[in-house]
Design brief:
By secondary structure, the chain is mainly alpha-helical. The protein is about 60% helix and about 0% strand.
Amino acid sequence: MATAGWATLSSLVAIKDDAELDLPELKRLLSRVQKTIHKAPDAVRSAMNSFIITLGSYVNPLTELAIQTGEAIGPVTANLGNNNCQVFSAPDYIRKVQKRGTIGKKRKTAKC
């Protein structure tokens, strides 16, 4: 259930205009991730890491805070089964989006 919650939040952040988002609440959730990510189960840890990446990539006002949070957390690992899924470094991924020049560019739809 927690994995679905973090994934849903990530999807909403990726499609909703920044003006429609509750930025103080998103900052609070980012702080929560920082405090609890390493204690969470593998799938939840992966979803939380994706949430950091999503905030940093799609919400321009939170990009630097997301990078700082990812750096404070450090490497995130998760056993996601026997597949090719991997857990990306949040700061590195967000910086890659910055270099591409697409920070804040929203998606039209969310895919599950």
